[in-house]
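Following up on my earlier message about KG4. Here are the inputs again, as you asked, copied directly from the submission form:
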Amino acid sequence: MLVLGIETSCDETAAALVEDGERVRANVIGSQVEHHRPYGGVVPEIAARAHLDLMLPVLDRALVEGGCTYDDVDAVAVTVGPGLVGALLVGVAAAKSLSLAHGLPLIGVNHLEGHVCAAQLEYGPLEPPLIALIVSGGHTSIVLLDPSGRFSTLGATIDDAAGEAYDKIARFLGLPYPGGPEIDRLAAAGDPAAIAFPRAILRDGYDFSLSGLKTAVVRELRRREAAGLPLHPPDVAASFQEAIVDVQVHKTVAAAEAHDVGQVLIVGGVAANTRLRRRMADACADRGIRLLAPHPGLCTDNAAMIAAAGWNRLVAGERTALDVAVDPNLPLEGLALGGAAAARRRGDDPP
Ligand code: KG4
Ligand code: ZN
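Thanks, got it. Here's what our run produced:
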């Protein structure tokens, strides 16, 4: 079955065609980075307008890349939340129109569930239980997908999202937006132990706090400038990155051990980070934990992951009403994975 996925929750206008929840036939992303770069971050109003301009061309390109027409499509899956309300509305309006015009079932997808389902595109059906570290420009959370395929959030950031912290520090270092990839690159030439930035471990839990680290970096940059001390940006980048990665690895592995889970998944734009991937791979290998780290292109926002999540729900018999509303704060808590996971739980053959 071929599912068309649509994703517009933040600043990527994306459409994808995925067969049976796993095989990507088209994965088109209309990036708006250039629109937001002058502002050093995503501007919601600009995002909504850019989605309007990009949505139809991106859909057309997906069909061309997939070598098919709407007649070949079996369902439309779309992100209904969480995200920027004006941005979400554009994708959902497009999905509803296509559903109505072509008589296709509509499947509403939670964006974070989508990030987790990105793993299907690389590793095949998800086999809960697993612990997912979801780290992006808008989200930083540790999620448990329990043996029955139900999501619960074990911890989240209490202030900045990981990507936001990367982007802000990059701006202080005079690097362009988005700053995460820039810091990643710069850090490769730096010493991660050059500056001892604080690690906010926040005892007894899986929550994150990044504002203290951000302040510490800014203070250090100002102190060095005022004292006329030399500044070696690669060292700052590497030391900052190491502080973030330390906490992410520590908490994710602790969550896996505490819940006796043998699989860890890292997704979201920040999961493209080279150092996080390396350190998480080492930590998991040491403990006999299987690490699922999808290709960076599947970690950042895309519509193939939404189509994959939608397929799970489609084969579980779920449909979303045409009057579904977007929800900028849509919770992940308690949501159950559909499809293959549900079938496996019942002891059926996976669909
Ligand atoms: O998932 P994503 O594409 O969009 C959101 O849902 O936010 O994540 C974008 C974020 C940006 O903050 C970007 O700086 C960060 O992911 N990012 C990275 C890397 N690549 C992207 N952060 C650290 N290292 C990277 N290699
Ligand atoms: Zn995202």
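One observation from looking it over: Confidence is low (pLDDT under 50) at residues 340-347. Hope that helps, and feel free to reply on this thread.
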